[in-house]
Amino acid sequence: MASTPETPDAESSSPDASAADSARFDQIVNLAKRRGFVYPSAEIYGGFRSTWDYGPVGVLLLRNVKDAWWKSMVQQRDDVVGLDASILTPPAVWEASGHLSNFTDPLVDCKECGQRWRLDKLDDPNQCPNCKKTGSFTEARNFNLMFSTHAGPVADEGALAYLRPETAQGMFMNFKNIINTTRVRPPFGVAQVGKSFRNEITPGNFVFRTREFEQMEMEYFVHPDDAPKYYEYWKAERERWYLDLGMPREALRLREHEEDELSHYSSATADVEYLFPWGWDELEGIANRGDFDLLAHTKRSGERLDWFDQAENVRYVPHVIEPAAGATRTAFAFLLAAYDVEEVRGEERVVLRLHPRLAPYKVAVLPLSKKSPLRETAQTLAAELRDEWSCEYDETQAIGRRYRRQDELGTPYCVTVDFDTAEDQAVTIRERDSMEQVRIPLAGVADWLRPRLK
Ligand code: ATP
Q1: Tens digit of each residue's pLDDT (9 = 90 or more) over 393-403
Q2: pTM passes above 0.85
Q3: Of 113, 248, 296, 303, whose CB has the highest number of CB atoms within 10 Å?
């Protein structure tokens, strides 16, 4: 991928995207702001360096992505437990993990125009993508991506802390606690969803690369002999997760890393990639981390982080398979994949074809009139549905415009309470993708929706 220069709110698509892809990207970014998915952070002060806030609709989409991940990775399994570890971390953790010395990106400055770039992400390492000058770069400097701060009132060396650049270390920090306090035994996993921070040299492409983002990571601890098997297993599982949630097959791929791409801790890594408007790019990395982390922390902390197999009477250091995904990046990819524009009776219809599990609102209740008894009937129905799903209620504007608004929010079903409802105790349900309408009993709406929203 070509890098974008750092600007206060770098958000346009990359220079190598085709004009059509670039226009589509801009439309989606525009929709995201217009409909309350994502707002520039601190916008009244002009925004702040590629930070974004998730609005009333975006927070639902993001939460649904995280919930879908948690459900498949934790709730539906008997071999994975959850964790929520702290973001503030002492330096010892990052010394041992190798992040203090290795978590760096090569930074170059263009002497001609002053732009900064991440060298490993440039298409041509000799040419500045901004001013096009060749041979104008400074020597590459290794720039550590971790944010540091101080814990407590005195900003001295002893108070130095880091904002975690990944959630994974929380799992290694708690390995001993978890094996001592729960009934897990290898193979088992520890999963976590939460914020991570990286002082990225070139954030951009909207929420694709930001300095503050959310990750969904799981460390799966296995007997060393089983690591290759579970590496294959998790690659297949994770690819299936995206497909099950509606990612188009042709826009998703697994790509095995070349030897020279591997991180300092990994013996094998594959990325799940999505075909972004600027080309294939990473959604998730699945890595075989071996025994690197547990050994490194055992050495640094003096605590023995291993497993005693009572049946076999042997001790071993489990190997780790890690599927590490980005929640914010993945939510964005689902938004891109869902965006569709079609012509309906001579008019353009914008529709987000999100999987019902990801859709911010599952249903909207729309009374044809604000008058009694339509309003009361509709409000009672909305209150009933809210018990199970996030539900929109909208009584303003013409019905056609209300449908279009729900289409842009990705709401799978709209329930219309009309003038016949008082007579026949029935409502009309309109399906988002086909726009087909069915009339069903008012009392049966929740039962009708339930299997369709699973
Ligand atoms: P990249 O090569 O894009 O910098 P990475 O390989 O360093 O990413 P990992 O350390 O494997 O990323 O992190 C796991 C996941 O976390 C990534 O696949 C991505 O979805 C997400 N992620 C990492 N960095 C960012 C970021 N700056 N903004 C948003 N999501 C991120």
Answers
A1: 999 999 999 99
A2: yes
A3: 296
**CB of 93 within 8 A of CB of 169?**
yes
CATH 3.30.930.10 fits 19-87+172-335, yes or no: yes
By most ligand atoms within 8 Å of CB, the mutation choice from 51, 195, 215 for ligand 1 is: 215
CATH class of 361-453: alpha beta
Task: Find out whether the beta carbon of 218 lies less than 6 Å from any atom of ligand 1.
Answer: no
Q: Would you say the CB of residue 324 lies under 6 angstroms from ligand 1?
A: yes
Which residues in the chain are classed under CATH 3.30.930.10? 19-87+172-335
Q: What atom in ligand 1 is closest to the CA of residue 217?
A: 14
Q: Binding-site residues for ATP, please?
A: 198-200, 208-213, 282-283, 326-329
Distance of alpha carbon 392 from its chain centroid, rounded? Answer: 24
Q: Is the pLDDT of residue 192 over 50?
A: yes
Q: Is the CB of 235 under 6 A from ligand 1?
A: no
* pLDDT over 50 at 13, yes or no: no
**Would you say the CB of residue 432 lies under 6 angstroms from ligand 1?**
no
- Residue in 65, 318, 286, 85 with CA at minimum distance from that of residue 191: 85
Q: What is the pLDDT of residues 275-331, one digit of tens each?
A: 999 999 999 999 999 999 999 999 999 999 999 999 999 999 999 999 999 999 999
The DSSP output letter for 74 is I
d(CA 395, CA 418): 12
Ligand 1 proximity of 274 Cβ (cutoff 6 Å): no
- How far is the centre of ligand 1, averaged over its atoms, from the C-alpha of 209 (Å)? 8
From-to residues of CATH 3.40.50.800 in the chain: 361-453
Q: Band the pLDDT of 12: cuts 50, 70, 90.
A: very low
DSSP string, 256-313: EPPGGG--TT-SEEEEEEEEETTEEEEEEEEEEEETHHHHHHHHHH-----EEETTTT
pLDDT score of 16 more than 70:
no
Question: 227, 321 in Cβ contact below 8 A?
Answer: yes
Quick one: average pLDDT of 381-408? 97
pLDDT given for residue 17 in this prediction: 64
Question: Which two three-digit tokens encode residue 178?
Answer: 């978890």
The closest residue, in CA terms, to atom 29 on ligand 1 is 209
The protein residue whose alpha carbon is closest to atom 11 in ligand 1 is 285
Please work out whether the CB of residue 213 comes within 6 Å of at least one atom of ligand 1: yes
Q: Which of 90, 86, 84 is nearest to 150 (CA)?
A: 90
Pocket probe mutation, ligand 1, options 269, 329, 334, max atoms within 8 Å of Cβ = 329
Q: What's at 310, amino acid-wise?
A: Q
